[in-house]
Amino acid sequence: MLPVVALVGRPNVGKSTLFNAMTRSRDALVADMPGVTRDRHYGVCRTGERPFVVVDTGGLSGVEEGLDALTAQQVRLAIEEAQVLVFVLDARDGVLPQDRAILDDLRRSGKPIIAAVNKTDGLDLQNALAEFATFGLSSTLPLSAAHNRGTDDLVRHVLPLLAEDAHEELAPEDAGAIRVAIVGRPNAGKSTLINRLLGEERLIVSSVAGTTRDPIRVPLERDGRRYVLIDTAGVRRKARVEEAVEKFSVIKTLQSIAAAQVVVVMIDARENLADQDLHLIGHAVDEGRALVIAVNKWDGMDQYQREQCERALERRLQFVDWAKNVFISALHGSGLRELMRAIVRAHDAANREIGSSELTRTLERAYEGYQPPLVRGHAPKLRFAHPGGSNPPTIVIHGSRTKHIAPAYRRYLENFFRKRFKLEGTPVRIEFRDGE
Ligand code: GDP
Ligand code: GDP
After folding, report:
1. Which of 25, 84, 229, 367 is placed for a possible disulfide with 218 were both Cys, Cβ 3.0 to 4.6 Å?
2. Pairing relationship of beta strands 84-90 and 113-118 according to DSSP bridges
3. Where does the EngA-type G domain start and stop, copy by copy (predicted)?
4. Domain limits at 189?
5. What is the pTM of this model?
């Protein structure tokens, strides 16, 4: 599972700016998606050699609130789950009493702390850092998050502090199985679905939890295919004391999505689609995961309600119109066969291998059909294409002036390739390269 790094510090020191720099999307695919903003507080940093979850804990105001703020459910969870704490400070403010109070709190956790002294742009670094040296932390690094300076160095200092085994290898029994994350808001019906699937089918091995908060992997065999369900719902942990905290953890959700090949986002048909649902879907796409939308609680809805629901989904999920919506009742077990079929299809599409000549032929046809708009009188040229990896299928297109290609044209190409190769249920990545 992905290790976790928490950003903590007073309000306004630049945590969310740093968060944005660390979790920047590498792909315009979703960055320009209308209606979906990236989750403000949780993301995955992939700028270094190993990915990890970054949590922007929001502002701790220090003295008065101190640990009060820390006990806010998600903040506490973040600090508890983090392997490394990045203590963000403001070089222009210098050391304030609140900073010392926060540091005391952080020290109590016993976790490694890196001080990131932000807003050093235009300042003398030596001077800027000197004051913070009094904290006696082993790493005190200068940063200018707004100018994206020092973030790579910060990541380089973070990585060695993350536990080796946190990035665990695939369990041998998982090989050949489709890894499926079932995610969604609380009460969408995730536990009911998992129990239903397990109750109907033979459970091969009962899985043993690693640490308490790791998502649990549940092997499942159905119609001759093997799956590993990555359970974020805490199905087997409902009885535990920490139920409230366990019930919904964004961190666990991100970890599950990272570990999965196919993400099933469960939506409650009786509730309006929430931003949280869209964020989850957007994140899964961002991570390149194959996607199935399971619309649950379809039982007991009348014709009118069903139509309303379908219309709302069509409207708001346009940006993932390639993902299949499956209407199910986890409670009654209806639609599950179709759900599993959609999972397999999405997985197979995500792993489809397509040769260079077929890709190039398709590119030529797309280019003939509709050419990218001129840039200062010159048309970007697209010459040939080759595969750049699977899961998600990645198509590398060589040409010239490709950096001027508009997002709309990229989407046109995506859709063209998707249609031609029936890449349903999976994001498609297009990478442009100029020259040979
Ligand atoms: P947060 O409350 O800790 O999340 O802080 P924000 O990321 O919202 O930043 C607070 C303010 O500091 C904003 O106006 C940012 O533009 C500014 N800021 C953030 N990073 C830098 C930096 O590296 N240099 C300068 N000069 N300003 C910064
Ligand atoms: P989770 O938080 O996503 O794991 O959601 P649960 O599986 O705990 O379900 C939340 C509530 O929704 C429970 O009361 C379930 O009985 C109910 N529920 C789950 N699936 C269905 C369904 O398909 N139809 C109906 N009517 N209720 C359901």
Report:
1. 229
2. parallel
3. 3-166, 178-351
4. 172-351
5. 0.79
